[in-house]
Design goal:
single chain, 54% helix, 353 residues, 5-stranded mixed beta sheet, 3 domains, alpha/beta, Rossmann fold
């Protein structure tokens, strides 16, 4: 709209004003002849077009500067909040339906974080950035080799555990014992695929130089891909390991999740947090992923968005049985509307007899 006003309305009005001295005698005008008037008109028209272009640039620049100011303000606020969190004096503006007094009391406190080989939460509250209290006091322990399955519906705070372990959310109370960030690997449901070669998708976040310094070769990477039935990817591209593509568009959801597990096998951390990262693969492939991860000495904490909020031992065989039972029950539930419709028909028919 601004472009239309500047180019057409402003320009047409200016040309009309510039043409007045050409056709009419204006008191005080220095031009006497028609040639002088025409020369003044041409000069004024050029000045008008230049000023119109300048005003247009100013208006467009104003919009861009305003947008830049918004980005700058958000980045400045982020840096300020990070400094306050590091100093332990950050207070979040609360947006929640819960009791404000209880929230303020919890969020004013700060818990204790201790670096340890094991993971342990002792009376730790889980609070969202908006101030909603998901869990008032959570306590559990997880030692090396204790594979844990966390089950719970969406929004109950499962992913919040990783955010606290990763230092993304502050600890408002209790005690958290956790290993260093380099020993915890997070595998999300929708993995991040970086821009780069196929090799870089597997070794992420390492660089090629870091991979070479670890003594890992392309043959080692290929052996990882074979476990996950991904070795065909190397042969499917002319450049092999050096092939580059928009991997999020090229790879299906199941292949992306297998690539994310390949990263896990490459990095071999002490702990792995699996946030529904096998939702698009078959149960057989899921079992292969878990078994191989355990054979590498990786302790697994996996999340499932079904049922109540519970912690239980991770057993591949048991989980397969539970998945089969869940699919069977879902089949029964899908048949419920048809059964209800049939019962209604029978009720109407019996009432008419």
């Amino acid at each position: 709209m601004e472009d239309f006003v500047i180019k057409y309305v402003w320009g047409a009005l200016g040309l009309i004003l510039c043409s007045v001295p050409v056709f009419f005698k204006v008191p005080g005008a220095t031009a006497v002849t028609m040639g002088d008037r025409t020369e003044s008109f041409v000069t004024n028209r050029r000045l008008l077009l230049s000023s119109s272009d300048a005003f247009g640039r100013v208006m467009f620049s104003y919009k861009e500067v305003t947008e830049l100011a918004g980005y700058t303000s958000r980045v400045a606020t982020l840096l300020e909040v990070m400094d306050e969190i590091k100093a332990g004096r950050f207070e979040k503006t609360l947006v929640s339906d819960d009791s404000a007094g209880e929230q303020l009391e919890l969020m004013r406190g700060r818990g204790t974080i201790i670096e340890s080989d094991d993971i342990e939460f002792i009376d730790v509250p889980i609070i969202t950035p908006g101030g909603s209290i998901l869990v008032r006091s959570l306590s559990f322990s997880m030692k090396r080799g204790d594979h844990v399955l966390v089950v719970g519906p969406n929004g109950c705070g499962k992913s919040s555990l990783f955010r606290i372990l990763g230092g993304l959310w502050p600890v408002y109370g209790g005690t958290v014992r956790k290993p260093s960030l380099t020993q915890v690997f997070y595998v999300p449901q929708r993995p991040y695929l970086s821009a780069g070669s196929l090799r870089q998708q597997i070794i992420y976040p390492d660089s090629l130089r870091t991979m070479r310094s670890k003594g890992i070769t392309d043959a080692d990477l290929l052996s990882i891909l074979k476990i996950l039935d991904l070795d065909h990817l190397v042969a499917s591209f002319p450049n092999g390991w050096d092939a580059e593509a928009e991997w999020r568009d090229v790879l299906s959801g199941g292949l992306q999740q297998r690539v994310a597990m390949a990263r896990l096998f490459y990095n071999r951390p002490k702990y792995a947090i699996l946030d529904e990262c096998t939702s698009s693969v078959t149960l057989e492939m899921e079992k292969i992923m878990y078994e191989h991860a355990k054979s590498l000495g990786i302790t697994l904490m996996t999340f499932d968005g079904q049922g109540k909020y519970i912690f239980t031992k991770l057993d591949a065989e048991t989980r397969l049985k539970l998945e089969d039972e869940r699919e069977e029950l879902e089949g029964y539930l899908r048949a419920v509307p048809e059964l209800e419709r049939r019962i209604q028909e029978l009720s109407v028919a019996s009432a008419g007899c």
